[in-house]
Amino acid sequence: MKNTIITALGVAFISTSLLHADNLPITAEEQKALTPDQVLTNLMEGNERYVAGEIAAPNIKDRIKAAAGGQFPQAVILSCLDSRVPVEDIFDQGIGDIFVGRVAGNVENVDQLGSMEFAAAAAAGVKLVVVLGHEACGAVKGACDHVKLGNLTELLAKIQPAVDSVKGYDESERNSKNTEFVNKVIEANVKMTVADIRERSKVLADMEKEGKIKIVGALYSLQDGSVTLLEE
To answer: Using H for helix, E for strand and C for coil, what is the string for the chain?
Structure first.
């Protein structure tokens, strides 16, 4: 997995966390001035603080009050349902900073796509879409084992193409007990979701082509809390 990831962005940027000494959400004007690369850098800098245990003071009461009059988030993140993946904390973001959509296996559906289009085009003006997978994903493991259970069956079917795309393993090795295989499926699933977003949402795809947003995939480590961006 490590040979297909990048950890350095190389983008010069003053973190938006410095825009407000009192750590309040950014304004509409500040959001409008941001580029997708700047937002991505801001999130990755926030993750570095999270890993180091140096996250900003949440300033919850003032943030609630400041955000009540409107929201101007920087990004929308599609994450797995997993309780060990606290998305806002991972990127050191607070009330009003990011949208978060969650579903087991971080797969897209029409509701998630519509929510992303709302976040980017219809109302909120976000500059970045992130598909965030994570190691030891239970939904991916379930897909690897061909689990059938009520509505979960249909959800896991969305991950099956990622399972099928990973080659080089005997049938006896293609299950949740094989950590290496599972890791490759997790990565493939994130990449396929990114590709599906572009294919299924002309709104988002066109915005990305115009440079208004960026769509990226990333993986979260349960071991150390770090986020790693995936190459396409």
So the answer is: CHHHEECCCCCCCCCHHHCCCCCCCCCHHHHHHCCHHHHHHHHHHHHHHHHHCCCCCCCHHHHHHHHCCCCCCCEEEEECCCCCCCHHHHCCCCCCCEEEEECCCCCCCHHHHHHHHHHHHHCCCCCEEEEEEECCCHHHHHHHCCCCCCCHHHHHHCCHHHHHHCCCCCHHHCCCCCHHHHHHHHHHHHHHHHHHHHHHCHHHHHHHHCCCCEEEEEEECCCCCCEEEECC
Write the CB contacts of 230 (distance below 8 Å, at least 6 apart in sequence): 4, 5, 6, 187, 190, 191, 216, 217, 218, 219
- The domains located in the chain, with CATH, are 2-230 (3.40.1050.10)
Residue pair 98/87 in contact by the 8 Å Cβ criterion: yes
Phi, psi at 90, each rounded to 5° = -55, -35
Is pTM beyond 0.85? Reply is yes
Q: What is the pLDDT of residues 128-184, one digit of tens each?
A: 999 999 999 999 999 999 999 999 999 999 999 999 999 999 999 999 999 999 999
Cα(136)–Cα(178) distance, integer angstroms: 11
